[in-house]
Write a structure and sequence with these properties.
The complex is a heterodimer.
Chain A (H helix, E strand, L loop, with lengths): L6 H10 L7 E8 L6 H11 L3 E9 L2 H7 L9 E5 L19 H23 L5 E5 L20 H19 L3 E4 L1 H8 L7 H7 L5 H18 L6 E4 L10 H4 L13 H15 L3 E6 L3 H10 L10 E6 L4 H12 L6 E5 L2 H10 L4 E4 L8 H7 L10 H11 L6 H15 L2 E7 L5 H10 L12 H9 L3 E10 L2 E13 L4 E8 L8 H15 L4 E7 L10 H4 L3 E5 L5 E7 L11 E6 L8
Helix pairs in contact in A: 1-2, 2-8, 3-4, 4-5, 6-8, 10-14, 17-18
Chain B lengths: L2 H14 L20 H15 L5 H6 L3 H16 L1
Classes of the chains: A alpha/beta, B mainly alpha.
């Protein structure tokens, strides 16, 4: 478990691992938060399971769009993980508007969110039957109504729990191979004070602390183990100070500690957990340095033994070394060593097995901490299962049949309706003095959606503002979830016979809504208004802006020339027929400068 | 190199996956290609974990190169000791 390892050690282990011979496991992450730090942690678990992880992150807050656009099948994606976090889903339900909006509106918001989830799963399923993991919404920590929230039926906390339940029901009824990560379990185990890192939430929408990330990736690893058929099959138990307190050979059957009362109660509960495993089909084996008769005596005659002879498939009770014994157990059962878990209180024995039999998972249960043993078995994540009923099996079959759909039309229709539901209000305006700092910052910090990556200082921007040969144009955005602020910027240079787009950049948190295309159109209209027929632009490639290498082509620009390696591309566009209308999915568009040719 | 400084170098080396001897005090997101804002976050959190401290938001804002990272780390450790 990585909870005991530092982030640095985990990173070091990934870096030094020999990955090239390992089979690949591909994960695609859809998300509305920054959660990239989890990549190394999940990779670590996959490494332990014998895989080289390939983990890619979709665009920020583009869960539905990516579900439509990413070709999961062609990319051989094994698993899609959807991180949808309560902090990002802030709206009338979960945010500050909860006090003001009535129940009607809240219910409508929840329905929209519900549909959003269903549309996302459907979009993925149209292309792939890969596993999907969805994060539950975390419970609200500080409800707006305070203690009153817990007294009423439809408080925020109740609504979230209801949402989590209902979306689960909807999805299970319609789709197969979709599972849910219990984020509230993770939160509870870590504790709220250790779960959210508000510094990085405000800085870059990264909500989780290192502790939270470790717990969440541990939880996800339980699924990964099952998806790859690596759930453990057999638990091999030491006896003295593991199944009971004390040493049978020295204390005798009457003095070992085992029973419903203290001091035997920890061992009693530990045995209950072993019995749970037995009832779930896990093989129970004993491996103990003892006289066989002594152990059998306890098994058959001690009144508080929950584990009895009937539960034990195989025992190696002798004075041989435990490595040999465990090898024999695996061989006798005809299972791999990597299917076995060894539990012992002894430092010596556990270290021995870790060295001699590295494929065996070792759980060290020191007797001073025997009170933790039952919980350890419950939470170890090694024996998890996701049972499949016959009903589910049939649903899988149905999914494998070809369902003819006009995927493109469905996709466009649903996406644009989704944009409309965002109720986007945008303003496009010429930068003023007050915008200089932000504009300069954007040129410094935007790396991905940046066509030319030119960095400008505040005085550079001021010079552009003061010059009639330049326009610095900004776009801001507000939607029903809140204000996103200034999300894009363009610098136009007006030359003799043509205008040139010196800078065109967009904030990654506002991508996936077709706004960048709209912004470009408005720029073109502005240039047309300034009585230019010809607009030129450039793409300069960097390691970080590959996503925009075809941006101008997609928007109708002609490629004039590019050097051999497409590092710099020059474009032009004749402005004679710019056809522009405000897209139906924009709620309001406000342009504060002259841009209509005949206006 | 003092112990604290070396540990910081090691952590940066690990998260950027470059050898320790290729890092110097002036390095930052501007000088090392792999070093972006996400890696910066990873590095800061790993340092907090290693030294069992928590940086203020204002310190995080200013930790713009290797020597500044070390500076604020030491500032934080001194506070803890006083």
């Amino acid at each position: 478990m990585i909870n005991d390892m530092s982030l640095r050690d985990i990173e070091a282990e990934i870096n030094s691992a020999h990955l090239s011979d390992l089979p690949l496991y591909r994960i695609f992450v859809l998300r509305n938060i920054t959660v990239e730090p989890i990549k190394s942690l999940i990779s670590f678990y996959l490494l332990k399971l014998g895989f080289k992880a390939e983990i890619e992150f979709g665009n920020f807050d583009n869960i539905l769009q990516d579900a439509y656009n990413v070709d999961f099948d062609k990319r051989n994606v094994d698993l899609v993980i959807i991180f949808s976090n309560i902090l990002s889903v802030s709206s009338s339900i979960f945010g500050n508007n909860f006090l003001l909006e009535g129940e009607e509106i809240t219910k409508k918001e929840i329905e929209k969110l519900h549909q959003y989830y269903l549309d996302t799963i459907e979009a993925i399923r149209e292309k792939s039957n890969c596993n999907i993991l969805i994060s539950d919404l975390e419970d609200i920590i500080s409800p707006i109504h305070g203690i009153y929230d817990n007294q009423i039926q439809n408080g925020q906390s109740a609504l979230i729990n209801e949402f989590n339940r209902e979306i689960k029901t909807s999805i299970i009824n319609q789709f197969s191979n979709v599972n849910f990560v219990n984020m509230n379990s993770c939160l509870t185990r870590v504790g709220i004070n250790n779960y959210l890192d508000l510094r990085y939430w405000y800085r870059s929408k990264a909500p989780y602390t290192a502790s939270a990330l470790k717990e969440i990736s541990f939880e996800i690893s339980k699924f990964l183990r099952i998806f790859n058929g690596k759930a453990k099959k057999c638990i091999i138990l030491d006896c003295d100070n593991t199944l009971w307190g004390g040493i049978i050979g020295e204390d005798g059957i009457n003095k070992i500690k085992l029973g419903p009362d203290y001091p035997g109660s920890s061992f009693y509960d530990f045995q209950k957990e072993i019995l749970n495993l037995y009832n779930r089909g896990i093989i129970i084996a004993l491996c103990s340095k003892n006289n066989e008769m002594d152990v059998m005596n306890v098994l058959n005659n001690h009144s508080s033994m929950i584990i009895k002879s009937d539960h034990i498939s195989i025992s190696k009770i002798n004075w041989k070394d435990k490595a040999s014994n465990i090898r024999e157990i695996a061989s006798d059962l005809n299972i791999g060593l990597d299917s076995c878990v060894f539990v012992d209180d002894s430092d010596f024995e556990t270290n021995l097995i870790k060295v001699e039999l590295p494929e065996v998972e070792v759980l060290h249960v020191p007797v001073e901490k025997a009170y933790q043993n039952a919980t350890l078995i419950r939470n170890c994540g090694l024996f998890e299962h996701l049972s499949i009923s016959n009903e589910d099996k049939n649903r899988t079959e149905t999914y494998k049949q070809n369902i003819q759909r006009n995927i493109l039309r469905t996709k466009t229709k649903n996406l644009r309706n989704y944009y409309k539901s965002l109720e986007m209000e945008t303003q496009v305006f010429i930068a003023k003095k007050i915008d200089v700092i932000r504009a300069s910052q954007m040129t410094q910090r935007t790396n991905q959606f940046n066509l030319t990556t030119k960095r400008y200082s505040e005085s550079d921007i001021e010079n552009f503002l003061n010059s009639s040969a330049y326009d610095v144009i900004l776009i801001n955005l507000k939607d029903r979830f809140g204000v996103l602020g200034i999300i894009g910027m363009a610098i136009i240079e007006y030359k003799n016979t043509f205008a040139e787009i010196d800078t065109f950049l967009f904030s990654c948190r506002a991508l996936g809504r077709e706004l960048e295309n709209l912004f470009l159109k408005i720029i073109m209209k502005r240039v047309e208004y300034k009585k230019y027929d010809l607009i030129k632009s450039t793409y300069i490639s960097t390691k970080k802006n590959l996503q925009v290498q075809e941006f101008y082509e997609k928007n109708g620009f002609s490629l004039l020339k590019s050097n051999d390696k497409k590092v710099i591309k020059h474009y032009s566009l004749n402005l004679s027929q710019i056809d522009f209308s405000v897209p139906f999915f924009i709620k309001t568009l406000d342009i504060n400068f002259k841009w209509e040719k005949n206006g | 190199m003092d112990n604290i400084k070396y540990k910081v170098y090691e952590i940066i080396s690990e998260f950027l996956n470059i050898p320790v001897n290729q890092i110097n005090d002036n390095d930052s997101q501007d000088t090392i290609e792999e070093w972006d804002s996400l890696k910066q976050m990873n590095i800061v959190i790993a340092i907090e974990e290693e030294f069992k401290i928590t940086f203020d938001d204002s310190q995080v804002e200013e930790m713009l190169n290797v020597s500044l990272i070390i500076y604020f780390l030491k500032e934080n450790l001194n506070k803890a000791n006083n």
